[in-house]
């Protein structure tokens, strides 16, 4: 992991119940230049499962987590690793220039991950 790179991660979570159980869907956006700058869009209970030491002040934008607002955030690769250990699978991923909708400079690289976890 590069210590001087920047990362913005956004995670968006949707949960649905089906006959076979619950499905958690998390969208994770990473500003790769800053490994501790990311956002997780998910239900707060899922974010707390992924990041049990997240500070309350880091929950912004309708309760979603912003690593930039946390005093001691993990780097995004550690977040991805933890999510995989919790049973999430990367369903899709993309990469490209910055996303001005979330305040990213177009000269930065953004990665987007869709992670899914099925529970019985």
From TrEMBL:
It comes from the Eukaryota. This is Uncharacterized protein. It comes from Adineta steineri.
């Amino acid at each position: 992991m590069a210590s001087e790179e920047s990362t913005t991660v956004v995670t968006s979570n949707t949960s649905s119940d089906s006959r076979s159980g619950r499905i958690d869907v998390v969208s994770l956006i990473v500003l790769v230049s800053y490994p501790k700058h990311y956002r997780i869009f998910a239900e707060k209970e899922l974010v707390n499962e992924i990041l049990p030491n997240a500070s309350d002040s880091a929950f912004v934008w309708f309760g979603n987590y912003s690593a930039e607002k946390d005093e001691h955030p993990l780097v995004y690769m550690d977040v991805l690793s933890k999510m995989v250990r919790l049973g999430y699978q990367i369903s899709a991923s993309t990469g490209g220039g910055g996303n001005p909708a979330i305040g990213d400079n177009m000269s930065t690289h953004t990665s987007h991950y869709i992670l899914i976890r099925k529970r019985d």
